[in-house]
Amino acid sequence: MPFEDLFLHLDSYPDPTPPADIDLAVAIAAAIGGKLTALGLAVTIPLESNRVADYLLGLSKIARDQEKESRGAARDDLKRFSKKAKAGGVFAEAIFARADLYDVPDVVAQMARTRDICLVPLGGRFTGQREVAVTALFNSGRPVLIFKRHKTAFAKGLRKVVVAWDGGACAARAVAEALPILARAAEVRVLTVLGDKPTAGAGQSGDLVRHLAAHGVAASVDEVEAKGRATGDVFDDYLKGAKPDLLVMGGYGHSRLQELVLGGATEHMLWETKVPTFLAH
Predict the structure, then answer these.
(1) Chain centroid to CA 12
(2) Is 136 in contact with 118 (CB distance < 8 Å)?
(3) Residues in CB range of 107: below 8 A, 6 or more apart
(4) Residues facing 244 on adjacent strands
(5) Which CATH number fits domain 5-147: 1.10.10.10, 3.40.50.12370, 3.40.30.10, 3.40.50.11540?
(6) Is 13 helix (H, G, I), strand (E, B) or coil?
(7) Which of 9, 49, 80, 123 has its CA 20 to 30 A from that of 35?
(8) Are 190 and 216 in contact (CB under 8 A)?
């Protein structure tokens, strides 16, 4: 079943989603199919301070000024999105809403539950977008597509997709969720890192190639020895040479003492992703 209903979160605090990220989101939607709804989420900033501290520091005024900037940024980004998405033929809806600063990830995840994919531009290291992406990935039940500004990805549509395959359940879920994308790609390559996991042995990608062929997707296999390197570093080296438009991989994480612990490769891609990355859990 093709994708029809895509969802994009536009950040408004502390920094708005850059115009280039909005343009890339529209290009991604045009390449993978479906209409795109954008959520411009303005934040409210809760304060816990006494009157004297508030009087001396002016915290309430600072918070209100930042809220006003957030509202303006959300509306400005929605205007740009609407113009670009309509021109690209992928516009569905532009939604302006407000949420408590600390509730943003949960609001995005809740809205993503009734969408095919949640697109999350990662922005800078301190924007909070990684928490949004992680919460959407593990709490929405839907796949997430993370990306940073990229000069070549999707510049000419969907040319090449790389599938990271380790034979695990998360990787299998990612492949299943991404089938509509794989069917549209001009080229699909399956990357297996050898020496990393017992399920990722030489030749074990063959059955995935068979499965993809059953869905009309022709794929080639690249097996790369880890040689003691972390999987994320292997990905970086491979992607630098392959130059795909998109990486498809399973998003792994587990709970430990009420804290979500991400898998090494998943965490690496959230912080160091070199290409747009489709994650499913």
Answers:
(1) 17
(2) yes
(3) 41, 97, 99
(4) none
(5) 3.40.50.12370
(6) coil
(7) 123
(8) no
Which residue is associated with the tokens 């959520």? 39
- Assess whether the region 5-147 and the region 160-280 belong to the same CATH fold: yes
211-265 pLDDT tens trace: 999 999 999 999 999 888 888 899 999 999 999 999 999 987 644 434 444 556 7
User: CA neighbours within 13 Å on the CB side: how many for 93?
Assistant: 10
- Phi, psi (rounded to 5 degrees) for 91: -75, 130
Phi and psi for 204 in degrees, rounded to 5? -75, -5
Check the CA dihedral 214-220-225-230 and report its sign: negative
* Burial degree of 99 (CB within 10 A; 0-12, 13-18, 19+): middle
**Residue 60, token pair as written in the block:** 């309430």
Q: List the chain domain ranges.
A: 5-147, 160-280
**Options 3.40.50.620, 3.30.360.10, 3.60.150.10, 3.90.180.10; which CATH number does 160-280 get?**
3.40.50.620
Name the packing angle between helices 129-139 and 264-272 (round to 10°). Answer: 140
Question: Burial of 54 by CB count in 10 Å (0-12 exposed, 13-18 middle, 19+ buried)?
Answer: middle
Q: Which among 163, 180, 168 has a CA at the least distance from the CA of 239?
A: 163
Token code pair at residue 120: 């999350």
pLDDT in tens, 59-118: 677 888 899 999 999 999 999 999 999 999 999 999 999 999 999 999 999 999 999 999
